[in-house]
Amino acid sequence: MTQQPAAQNQAHAQASNGAEQDVWDEQRLQEAMKQLKLLHIKVRRLNDTIPKMIKPLVQKQPSPDAMFAAFMNSVTEAQANIKEVTDLMRDEKSREVFAQARKRKAEEPEGIESWEYYDHPDCYNTTSNRTRVIKTPGGDIRLLHIKKRGTVPKCGDCGSKLSGIPALRPREYSQISKPKKTVQRAYGGSRCGNCVRDRIVRAFLIEEQKIVKKVLKEQEQSQKKK
């Protein structure tokens, strides 16, 4: 009668030890997150694989042989990127992470929320959501989101860029003060200096022309009276 509780206690102890071994500590979870982050960056780089392969065929090449050589180089580069991703996915560390994720999903199907595209607005490869892989001074590989570049305001007459005004996006322009959006001259925020000078000269000449016409008209009237 005493052996049965002892066997049950031993089995319970083995089960608890196995459960403790399956539970990942914080350091192991951080390593898994780094592996998933690296895999995510590599996969995101594959979004431009086909456009990069077609680019040599669209650009003007000096000869058909040069076009074929450029195309084959782009194909080789794309194959190397795909092989790098597949090797990373077949890596022992990645397999271990995937197995743990599947296990946790099976144990707690309601605890892990499904991925929805509308919960992640940065998942589209649009003009305002370009990405670029960078390496920080600490040696970490990061995915940098590149937004739309701000444009410099242009002159309304000649179309040249206005100097002294920063190139920002519309929302950023709304958050800076008015002196930073203009320069100290007439039409400082919409016309360049050369066009303002031309406008001043044009206005002066028009007024001079009016005065000359008025003087000539007065002279004609005085001569008629005589």
Automatic annotation (TrEMBL):
This is 60S ribosomal protein L34-B. One of its GO terms (molecular function) is structural constituent of ribosome. It comes from the Eukaryota. Residues 1-25 are annotated as: Disordered. Belongs to the eukaryotic ribosomal protein eL34 family. GO terms for biological process: translation. The keyword Ribosomal protein applies. Coiled coil: none annotated. Keywords: Ribonucleoprotein, Ribosomal protein. GO terms for cellular component: ribonucleoprotein complex; ribosome.
